[in-house]
């Protein structure tokens, strides 16, 4: 059990939240609702006749809101100011000691609750917990959100994005490589559908070359043959950083292998 805070999942309209940790001043007791610190005017500290303490909200919390009652002992304020020649009373010494002790407890619990390196390792260990409030990624090593990845996957799998491109060429019997006007969705030959004079070609008979913007045939297409190259799937309209490695795009985009950097 934590020494410096207590958490509650509120019921509808709940106003009272008991706590058992010690504190020195009423202003050292703070209230957070779903992570947002509340103004001191939004609640009061109630001490029962039996010594029990609780926070009472002026306006009841909503159902399932997370209410945290926390001690924050104002680290920027000295509670005791000793002067030369003063009488060192037990109460003042105890008060100064407790202030430092409470600050140490609060820092310790915040540290324990923070993201830590794995035991004996060099990687961060989230201990099975989700990481929230992650920003939109812009670089290769950035973490990204489920919504970002889901949006890209959905765009590829369901066709939410830009219409696939296609090119037409005429064979001359000697040229085996043709430059495309677009960059394909992937580097596997199955990323494009190719037909010659209406006959669909086996992906083993050609490769996607260059920067995924060329089609290279094992055998040059015959003279005057009509070559049609159609991009499979849909292009994602989202601006994705160029340094992300999209891996090998399979015929079925759902089963394709993509590397999004660090996904959380």
Key attributes of the depicted protein:
264 residues, single chain, elongated, alpha+beta, 18 strands, 4-stranded antiparallel beta sheet
- Gap from first CA to last CA: 28 Å
Which residues form runs of ≥5 with pLDDT under 50? Answer: 241-264
Form type: elongated
The SSE order reads EEEEEEEHEEEHEEEEEEEE
- What does the radius of gyration come to? 32 Å
Multimer state: single chain
Tell me the number of helical segments per DSSP (H or I, 4 or more residues long).
Answer: 2
What structural class do the secondary elements suggest?
A: alpha+beta
Mean of residue pLDDT values: 83
Helicity range of the residues? 10-25%
Tell me the number of structural domains.
2
Number-wise, the strands total 18
The largest sheet is:
4 strands, antiparallel
**Strand proportion:** 25-35%
What does this structure look like?
This protein has 264 residues and is α+β, with helices and mostly antiparallel strands. It folds into two domains: 5-114, no CATH class; 143-263, no CATH class. 14% of the residues lie in helices and 26% in strands. It is built from two helices and 18 strands. The strands form six sheets. A four-stranded antiparallel sheet has the order 1-7-3-4, with no helix packed on it. The chain has a four-stranded antiparallel sheet with strand order 11-17-13-14, with no helix packed on it. It has a three-stranded antiparallel sheet with strand order 2-6-5, with no helix packed on it. Strand 5 and strand 6 (53-57) form a beta hairpin. The two termini are 28 Å apart.
